[in-house]
Amino acid sequence: MATRYRFGDNNFPHFVTCTVVNWIDIFSREVYKEILIDSLVFCIKEKGLRLHAWVFMTNHIHLIISADYELSSILRDFKKFKSRQILKTIEENKQESRKEWLLWMFNRAGIKNSNNEREISILGSG
Questions:
Q1: Number of domains in the chain
Q2: Residue 92, domain extent
Q3: Which residue positions in the chain have pLDDT lower than 50?
Q4: Nearest to 39 by CA among 1, 90, 7, 85
Q5: Three-state secondary-structure class, residue 61
Q6: pTM (two decimals)
Q7: For the stretch 23-41, what's the b/e string if a residue is b when 16 or more beta carbons lie within 10 angstroms of its beta carbon?
Q8: CA-based nearest residue to 87, from 111, 121, 43, 124
Q9: Is the dihedral of CA 114, 126, 65, 62 positive or negative?
Q10: Which CATH number characterizes residue 105's domain?
């Protein structure tokens, strides 16, 4: 994904796609989908995001969004928060059968991305 989103007029709807690194099907698990939904609801209520349409796939999401101000900042915060919550849930989830593999894959992607504060990443290019 681009390091910085560039939007025209924030008030006009924009089509955005966010993919999971290496197209890992993280959203096939209900617990991770709930994090995605909670993050969107938070951005709607607290950050002024307007969500016009959405599609959640197992390894990516499509959004048609607008806002009253800085859509790029809202999207940045959405991705950052969502990624941290998903990673925390994976680390704490004793029933996650792919735990070690998921953490290894996300860690590999994070090391390659100089924009990460923590050397782990969920969202890639898309």
A1: 1
A2: 14-112
A3: 1-3, 119, 125-126
A4: 85
A5: strand
A6: 0.81
A7: ebebbebeebeebbeebbe
A8: 121
A9: negative
A10: 3.30.70.1290
